[in-house]
Amino acid sequence: MKKVINQFTTRAETYSASANWISDQNLIQEHIAAASPRGNGNVLELCCGTGMVGRNFAAAGWHVCGIDLTKGMAEEANRFFPCICSPAEQVPFLDGAFDVVVLRQAYFLLEDGQKVLEQAHRVLKPGGVFVFSQTVPFSSEDSPWLEHIHRTKQAQLREFFTEESLKQQLEQDFFRVREVRRLPVRENITRWMALAPEQTPEQQAEVCRLVAEAPEPYHSIHKVEVVDGEVLEDWNWIIFSAVRKSD
Ligand SMILES: C[S@@+](CC[C@H](N)C(=O)[O-])C[C@H]1O[C@@H](n2cnc3c(N)ncnc32)[C@H](O)[C@@H]1O
After folding, report:
1. Is pTM, for the whole model, over 0.85?
2. Is there a contact between 69 and 90 (Cβ–Cβ < 8 Å)?
3. What's the CATH number of domain 2-186+236-244, 3.40.50.150, 3.40.50.720, 1.10.287.3510, 3.30.70.2740?
């Protein structure tokens, strides 16, 4: 956990602007829609980072709390809703406290993902909704090259997930998927790397090169372009809306 804390402490200041997906309204609104038909209840955002998703739930009338392991990230989220600096493996709330739990783009970092899913299950009310999302490959065709890029970029990556393997994790013990949403978000890889101070300039250049010079079919599937020297591509988002197996 120490390495994850170090990485996100270094990134806390630049994090919110470092990638399009973080504040992309289409993506965030899909998370809120995935929580329906529950509405205006209590939401817990696990591993909330700077709280971009939670802020928008709050703006839509929900009561939001957050948890993040990294103090600098939790402090930023706390400007928008109450946020506790705590590991998601030990959620400091009572059983059944929330109508909705959200976990976006953090599962791949967790040492014990099943422990976090168990906590999400525990703090949800009966009939509550778990909104669980991450970037994944579009298909088996772009998967090997995407894994290569992610392993080059993210030293803290515990496991590389596909849509199928993420669903399997969710449904192993605690949840049943009731709905799946998929959408692409266009990313500027050059800006993403420039705002990743935990990377050396050589690592940043290598990630940009791996995308710009990606082999087929990755290049076509991700719609890779170099515009005015900046590398652009599509990322594939999967948003699971799940209910407790025990309901
Ligand atoms: C890629 S960021 C995503 C932040 C946020 N979910 C979002 O979508 O903008 C991952 C976040 O997970 C947090 N994190 C990683 N491991 C954690 C853990 N075990 N418990 C709580 N937070 C964790 C990090 O501190 C970081 O803020």
Report:
1. yes
2. no
3. 3.40.50.150
